């Protein structure tokens, strides 16, 4: 049996125009800068799952220079 372990890491600076979103939850406070929803918890978890699956990380799948594939996890908690 092959065991795979994933580690996710994401960083965004404060100062964004949007709301502060952590793990899909909107929190009162200054937003984070990012070309996506800048949800550091959701992005780190996604990267931790993509790694063991043998898939590329979010930065490769959704690069900052491709606006047509804007990543947004914040809608998940609304359903």
What can you tell me about this protein's structure?
The protein is an alpha+beta fold and 79 residues long. The protein is 19% helix and 14% strand. The protein has two helices and four strands. It has helices at residues 40-50, 58-61; strands spanning 14-16, 20-22, 25-27, 31-32. The chain has a two-stranded antiparallel sheet. A hairpin with a 2-residue loop joins strand 2 (20-22) and strand 3 (25-27). The termini are far apart. The model has no long low-confidence stretch (mean pLDDT 84).
Outline = elongated
SSE series = EEEEHH
Mean pLDDT: 84
Tell me what portion of residues adopts beta-strand conformation. Answer: 5-15%
Helix content: 10-25%
User: Which parts are unreliable, with pLDDT below 50 for 5 consecutive residues or more?
Assistant: none
Rg:
13 Å
Structure annotation, total helices:
2
SS-derived structural category: alpha+beta
Tell me about the largest β-sheet.
Answer: 2 strands, antiparallel
- The total beta strand count reads 4
Distance between the termini: 37 Å
Query: Within the largest sheet, what's the order of strands?
Result: 1-4
């Amino acid at each position: 049996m092959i065991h795979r372990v994933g580690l996710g890491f994401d960083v965004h600076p404060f100062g964004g125009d949007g709301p502060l979103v952590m793990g899909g939850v909107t929190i009162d406070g200054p937003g984070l800068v990012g070309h996506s929803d800048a949800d550091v918890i959701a992005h780190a978890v996604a990267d931790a799952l993509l790694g063991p699956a043998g898939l590329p990380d979010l930065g490769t799948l959704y690069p900052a220079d491709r606006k047509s594939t804007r990543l947004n996890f914040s809608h998940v908690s609304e359903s």
